[in-house]
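REVIEWER CHECKLIST
Item 1: Sequence provided? yes
Item 2: Single chain? yes
Item 3: Sequence as submitted:
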Amino acid sequence: MSNEAPAAGDGRRSQRALIALLVTVAAVVIVALIAVLTRGGPAQYAEGSPEGVVQRYVQAVTDGDRQTALALLTPTIAEECQRLEPSGEDYRVTLTGASEEGDSARVDVMVTTYYDPGLLGSGEFQQQETFELTRVDGDWRLETTPWMFAVCMGATL
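Item 4: Structure as written out by the authors:
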């Protein structure tokens, strides 16, 4: 058997490798923290655009601000409103497309519903939905909304 001591260079190499690994891990953590802390909120759409009207309406419904939500509906629907109670679900709405043709507009969104998954399941469900708008006295107003955001029976599809 040989009683040779490990070369001094082996210890230094493993120490350098450990330091390099720790520096790399620290750099990754710092980059991840910067990404999380500098990430902005949702995009803000122009208030007078169809996308902006939908964004303000969904926020009003989510906040329970019925007056603001009603103000964004067409006058006929708002006046004839038969109140619906909010669903109480937790939603995330993502714009997937928008189009305008004359005095009509359509805003397509992906609605993600979050719920208690129970023993099995992912705890979320996604579905494509559409808001339809019309121009009233130069302003965009909602004619139809997806059922989960309806505050009036007349505003649902």
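Item 5: Key structural point noted by reviewer: Residues 8-38 form the longest helix (31 residues).
Item 6: Recommendation: ____
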